[in-house]
Amino acid sequence: MNNDNFIINNKVFNSRLLIGTGKFSSPNIMRDAIEASGSQIVTVALRRVDLEHPEDNLLNYIDPIKYQLLPNTSGARNSIEAVRLARLGRAVSGTNWIKLEVIPDFKNLLPDPFETFEAAKILVKEGFVVLPYIQADPILAKKLEEIGCATVMPLGSPIGSNKGIKTREMIEIIIEESNVPVIVDAGIGTASDAAIAMELGADGVLVNTAIATSKDPVKMALAMSLAVRAGRLAYLAGRPPYKKAEASSPLLGFLEE
Amino acid sequence: MFSEYIPSINIDYYKSLWAAASKTEIQNILYKNKISIDEFAVLLSPISLEMLKDIAYIAREKTIKKFGYNIGLYTPLYLSNYCVNACSYCSFNCNARIIRKHLTIEEVEKECKEIKKEGFDNILLVSGEDHEKVNINYLIDAVKIAKKYFSYVAIEVYPLEEKDYKILRDAGLDGVTLYQETYNREVYKIYHKGPKANYSYRLDTMDRAARGGIKRLNIASLFGLNDWREEAIYLAHHINYLRKNYWNVDLALSFPRIRPNSLGFKPLYPITDKELVLLIASFRLLDDSLSLVLSTRESESFRNGMIKICVNNISAGSKTNPGGHLEDDSDGQFVIADNRTSRQIYEYLRSIGYEPVWKDWEKVL
After folding, report:
1. Which helix (H) or strand (E) element contains residue B154?
2. Is residue B364 part of a domain?
3. B234: which of A220, B22, B183, B314 fits an S-S bond (Cβ 3.0–4.6 Å)?
4. CA angle B233, B238, B240 (to 5 degrees)
């Protein structure tokens, strides 16, 4: 594992688990869970960054030296809003990394591919390191890679659904075809889901709801970190085939006659 | 428009569903991930009151999964208590002898500063219906002033035209709150005199607001005017209708119960505390992405209880009289049942392991 580094935009990380900061019951529990997860990349919704209430400002609980801050554009419904939020994020957080989320649908919280693509084009040009949250669509993933996104972040199932990797077939294609890191984002409900994503060959996973709303977020954060490592190791080790080949193949029997 | 859709709702059919419901049927609904409006009607059945514990438990699970431990905080800012309508249940009724006040834009700004000090970043501008004192130009100015101080600005005023919503959106308006009061056309007639008597125009307000580009719509019935189960069915249809036709708006639902006011109005169809819990929790089971709102019309203990079940948005530190954050020289709309300051609510939420959310929006959105 020593040389198995996780690299995004030339920056090297040891942990392949990314953490979201929403839905926690208190900023202290959030901070402890992040610590337990061993994660080095932490995403924060800009609309929740509250400069007027320092005690409630999530940014004050995340050490920007220890962690790569990843502001996100949650709340943006179109490319214009996302670009505005990203610029604000750069000013507030001091990083040019941005997790691009464009979600026009408040019921299922699914990302808009057209608006995400438009926003990504603008943000890449403006020098942002763009990590777009997308539907598990292999063509969209390639197009975002082509215009210079640092990663792609396909969803496993809808945000907050805890349903696991329902888009498996498409995620496998994205992983196979991608030249940039693939981070499975959304839908991971428990540790085994994270392990499955990693076994498929994902470069990382992002988890929020499953940790924040579990009974013991710190323990779940640790479980996720172990699952991500286990899944990664299994992927690197190579899965043995499902079934042993048969000793004699009736198909080739005629060759021996 | 919703006024064209509403005649298709057959209330007698739903009445037969909640009248015939059995515990087994309800139990089976509780196992489901998604429920239909028919199943929602079964959930509203009187028998469900005996299973309230189970229903509340599922509502809590769904709420935490969707919203985590976040509770949004907002406060109303009353612009004016002048009103040309004569609604028999409302103390802003034009025939009521109350001390009237209308804030100048300078006074609106003073109130905004005061409210900002209390910590809020989400404000609801409220007014009675008076097209002279609170006209569209006044509303534009009020929204612009409020937007200087708050990320999120909504209005709860009389119904407007689509073009007015567009103008207000461009001035910074994020949300529109408007209660139908009652969806039953005949009952509606009894209570409303004045321009508000136009039932269909009020009913189509959310269509006009959505078409005008408003992002968040908050609807409700005023519980007490009509059978609450009937209102719940109409509300469920209104929600489904809005979702289908304006798929990218965010929807919120409030549960105002008629409160004691200066008129001494007694509701014909009171709803009990237990029934109100069932009603609110059933909406969470119907639609887990709805924001469920509970104002200071409800008591401290009731609100504390509902936060732990499924309410995710509450008002705090409310004054229902214009200018009430600075002076107390006018009459309010209703008696506040939860008098805690915003700070006390904040501390309470922290103490039970919930995250009080002042800010959940950006001005650039």
Report:
1. strand B152-156
2. no
3. B183
4. 95
Evaluate whether B23 touches B47 at the Cβ level (below 8 Å): yes
What tokens were used for B18? Answer: 């909640």
Does B246 reach chain A within 8 Å, measured CB to CB? no
In this predicted structure, the answer to whether residue A12 has a pLDDT above a threshold of 70 is yes
Q: Considering the domain boundaries, does residue B322 fall inside one?
A: yes
b/e string for A185-213 if b means 16 or more Cβ within 10 A?
Answer: bbbbbbbebbbbbbbbbbbbbbbbbbbbb
- How close A90 gets to chain B, by Cα (Å)? 14
Total residue length of chain A: 257
The verdict on a CB contact (< 8 Å) between B362 and A27 is: no
Q: Closest Cα of chain A to B14: distance in Å?
A: 25
Task: Show Cβ contacts of residue B126 under 8 Å, excluding neighbours closer than 6 positions.
Answer: B76, B77, B78, B79, B155, B156, B157, B320, B333
State the pTM of this model: 0.86
> B270 lies in which domain range?
2-357
Q: Find the CATH number of the domain harbouring B265.
A: 3.20.20.70
Q: How far is B65 from chain A (nearest CA, A)?
A: 6
Number of structural domains, chain B? Answer: 1
Quickly count: other Cβ atoms within 10 Å of residue B253's Cβ. Answer: 23
Mean pLDDT of all residues belonging to chain B: 93
Please tell me the distance from the alpha carbon of residue B239 to that of residue B252, in angstroms, as a whole number: 9
Residue in B closest to A74 by C-alpha: B361
- In this predicted complex, what is the ipTM? 0.73
B253 assigned to some structural domain: yes
Known catalytic residues of A are 99
| A217-237: pLDDT as tens digits | 999 999 999 999 999 999 998
Cross-chain Cβ contact B365/A106 below 8 Å: no
